[in-house]
Design a protein that fits this description.
The structure is a homodimer. The first copy, chain A, contains 16 helices and 16 strands. Chain A is of the alpha/beta class and about 425 residues long. The first copy, chain A, has two domains: about 240 residues, Aldehyde Dehydrogenase, Chain A, domain 1 (3-Layer(aba) Sandwich); about 140 residues, Aldehyde Dehydrogenase, Chain A, domain 2. In chain A, strands 10-9-11-8-7-12-13 form a seven-stranded parallel β-sheet, with helices on both faces. In chain A, strand 12, helix 16 and strand 13 form a beta-alpha-beta unit. The longest helix of chain A has 19 residues. The interface between A and B is large, with 68 and 68 residues. Chains A, B: Catalyzes the NADPH-dependent reduction of L-glutamate 5-phosphate into L-glutamate 5-semialdehyde and phosphate. The product spontaneously undergoes cyclization to form 1-pyrroline-5-carboxylate. Chains A, B: Belongs to the gamma-glutamyl phosphate reductase family. Chains A, B: Pathway: Amino-acid biosynthesis; L-proline biosynthesis; L-glutamate 5-semialdehyde from L-glutamate: step 2/2. Chains A, B: Keywords: Amino-acid biosynthesis, Cytoplasm, NADP, Oxidoreductase, Proline biosynthesis.
């Protein structure tokens, strides 16, 4: 196994990867969900069996990262501690424990001519996952693709190349032990960026690409891709405090959505407050609470009329995903203005209203164009684990195919299966 | 209303179209399914009310078509006879009569923390439909988009520009009479191809493009698009006669799949016959029947051992969508070889097996990578009307989002709606 840029003919290498994946995906249709779950358990066992090797090779990545001046946050995400290795194995077992998405009959009916028609859930086929530094994504992505009966081509970041290579070898070992095709999960064995360019052109072989990483990675993938891409863009999430909001709940949800974890896509980035909730003192309570938690508030003119010591917001603030202890604040005159603001500046990820009005809750849920519309709970719940999907490949900000937290189910498609007894069109 | 190339600033024109569509799509979220159905009925009435105007302007298209040397088949597709105008109105009413896809709760559950989570069906938003000559597509596309609560931007072919313009005016009239935003359906008022190029770049405004037309149109759209495209490629459909096939049924299904209508995407283009069905005389019966119906058979070497007077097939034949009274014929040694052939040469559209073996039927249904896997019935049933979808926007050969016949349901997406009572992440 090589993980240096020694592949001479990248196009041929990618064609071969694709052909192997396609063959494996076809072969996978002949295995049951139990077979695939068995492989997931075997992969978990292989990860634990290879703990030392995994940590030794992870140390090479960490050394290289230090030498290359990676930030301590990046180095932290890269490190495979004992607890993280246990978690990788545990995640694999949790995915195995989920219901099999494949073969499920979504709907069925008997047509007037007697044909029995089924809409049946099937694997997508070949899935390309492109990701950045965290090596656990290698096993997460492999496990979700396998659970859904897909062949996976995984392209990790160069910072984690040694760690990813060992994890991929464990995946292969687990597949082999379960009798599944080992090409069902392949790691791209070069960090040459041109390989990604080739893979993204492979219409008819690779069915979809899911890039996991920062906005620039995703934009670069979309630029180059001829195959469909499911995008997981940024989360510019909003919390809107309605006129009728319960003040305690408003303080608590704003606090949690902003401060529980700031570096994640489902953290709140803008707070919208109805003028009535500014006038009745709720705004001041929220602002005091957030400032006490060390959050910088960037406020519009109206908010600064109530709280003159707040820093003024610029127009850029409305569109910014801070991923930090900063929040933008705007006072709105109406629910309409709040909805309009979110639809204009939001990223269609997760947006919450705090309200006691049933009508306002329903209008918000219907009219905000977002993957996750929340009423009276923190944006931080927008997450595949929280939704009970078992694991997630990410949170789609796309509207087609999959929206919001994506689990193994979202890595499937359907086919129509019709059973007749000789019917022909009259 | 202008339908000549007199728009000076195409970019500004497209931006304006997009902005209007986006605003209309947002406004549509505040109308009920009954409101949208009411508009569909009003549009049907407007079409019938404007029958004379429609036929007068259609005559301009027909005159221009004759002057430009359009084929008689093309002229036929373009013509709006009385019967076709009645059918347009009837289709609109049929779409109105379908259940409302919007607001349907796909799944719901109460999370352990008490949050009530719903996966709710919602409109996609703004849909761009690009189509060729048949003017009835203007109202079909408008009605399906509206049914699903979407704003539509329609781009028809230049051959039908006068007819499309009148139909679009009727749509507008119907929307207005129902109190819906008239920008919910807009016709691109220029046949300048550059307009399509601009529209296909409008990420964030236009959510999806569905091109309806020949392969070259679709390829050109995919080439240029930054927005997602749902593709309706050709139908290289197969009928496979298994070893155990009932001979009468084999003859009847092969006949119907090939000859019922040859110019359509769900007509059979290749016949695969198990060696046993060649040896037992079924092949000869099928071949005699097809030749009697005037079908040219292009056969592989093995078939020509049984029927030496057949014309030999070349490798190109396996990948050809004839859309004509021609069929390719290949003898296979096994079900595996049949599946392999279809997965290699097929277009993932519609493929049928004729068999009495339950095991072979199931393997075919599972292992053939196709949108529509048929057991013992004609490929001609692969159709939105036949499936009871009410109407169809086309037959998707894509695997993401929508596969096979696409109805109004497939022009929707979902959002997650969560109802809490103050939950925050611990």
């Amino acid at each position: 196994m090589t993980h240096t840029n020694t592949i001479n003919d990248l196009q041929a290498y990618c064609d071969d990867l694709g052909r192997r994946a396609l063959n494996a995906s076809r072969a996978l249709t002949r295995f049951s969900g139990a077979d695939r779950d068995h492989a997931l358990h075997n992969i978990a066992a292989a990860i634990l069996d290879n703990r030392r090797k995994l940590q030794a090779d992870n140390a090479l990545d960490l050394d290289a990262g230090r030498a290359n001046g990676l930030s301590s946050a990046m180095l932290d995400r890269l490190e495979l501690t004992d607890a993280r290795i246990d978690l990788i194995a545990e995640s694999l077992r949790q995915v195995a424990a989920q219901p099999d998405p494949i073969g499920r009959i979504e709907s069925g009916k008997v047509l007037p001519n007697g044909i029995r028609l089924q809409k049946r859930r099937v694997p997508i086929g070949v899935v390309l996952i492109i990701f950045e530094s965290r090596p656990n994504v290698t096993s997460d992505a492999a496990s979700l693709c396998l659970k859904a009966g897909n062949a996976a081509i995984l392209r990790g970041g160069k910072e984690a190349v040694h760690s990813n290579t060992v994890i991929a070898a464990c995946v292969r070992e687990g597949l082999q032990a379960a009798g599944l095709p080992t090409d069902a999960v392949q790691l791209v064995e070069t960090t040459d960026r041109a390989a990604v360019g080739h893979l993204l052109q492979m219409e008819g072989t690779i069915d979809v690409c899911v890039p996991r990483g920062g906005e620039s990675l995703i934009r670069a993938v979309v630029e180059q891709a001829r195959i469909p891409v499911i995008k997981h863009y940024t989360g510019n999430c909003h919390v809107y405090i309605d006129a009728s909001a319960d003040p305690d709940m408003a303080v608590s949800i704003a606090h949690n959505a902003k401060t529980h974890r700031t570096g994640v896509c489902n953290a709140a980035e803008t707070l919208l407050v109805h003028q009535a909730a500014a006038d009745n003192g709720t705004l001041k309570r929220i602002a005091d609470d957030l400032r006490e938690a060390g959050v910088e508030i960037r406020a519009d003119e109206k908010a600064r009329q109530t709280l003159p010591d707040l820093k003024p917001a610029s127009d850029d603030d409305w569109a910014t995903e801070y991923l930090d202890k900063i929040i933008a604040l705007r006072i709105v005159d109406s629910l309409d203005q709040a909805i309009e603001h979110i639809n204009r500046y939001g990223s269609r990820h997760t947006d919450a209203i705090v309200t006691t009005s049933l009508a306002d809750a329903e209008r918000f849920a219907n009219e905000v164009d977002t993957a996750n519309a929340f009423v009276n709970c923190s944006t931080r719940f927008s997450d595949g684990f929280q939704y009970g999907l078992g694991a997630e490949i990410g949170i789609s900000t796309d509207k087609l195919h999959a929206r919001g937290p994506m689990g193994a189910d979202d890595l499937t498609t359907y086919k129509w299966v019709a059973y007749g007894d000789g019917q022909v069109r009259p």
